[in-house]
Amino acid sequence: MGFSIVWMYMASQAGGYFWLFGMIFFLVGFVVSFGNIITNFLAYKNTVYIITDKRIIVQTGAIGIDTQFIELDKVQEVYVNTGFIDRLFGTGSIFVITAGNIFFSSRGRSSRFRPSLAALRDPYEVHRVLQEAIQQNKKERPGFNPDQP
Question: Is the CATH number 2.30.29.30 carried by domain 49-140?
């Protein structure tokens, strides 16, 4: 990207339209350098997390909105992750491990996808609420006996 800026400057000094050739490389470099940051920022602005008595609903997306439903009776484990950047901003993420593998298709490819609730202001409080919802859901299931292992 830096080289293309120098190219465009030198080409514009020489005259003509050779600077347009450098613009193509500048745009490619810009997308490679900043495309992921811009996409994540737009997705963050469009992200909603909902915890009900039956499921977790995650709606997110940069342009189109994708909705994911995670049934509480499929949840096996929930844990909180607060990395270095999270500590700087006072946030954290909650990862949900489900009973089965979830495959998320994006742009024609399939990959393993671990459901998460990212950039939460008080992740430990959300974890507590989620654990209570999971326990309540287990009690409401027919045939569930909390005294049996």
Answer: yes
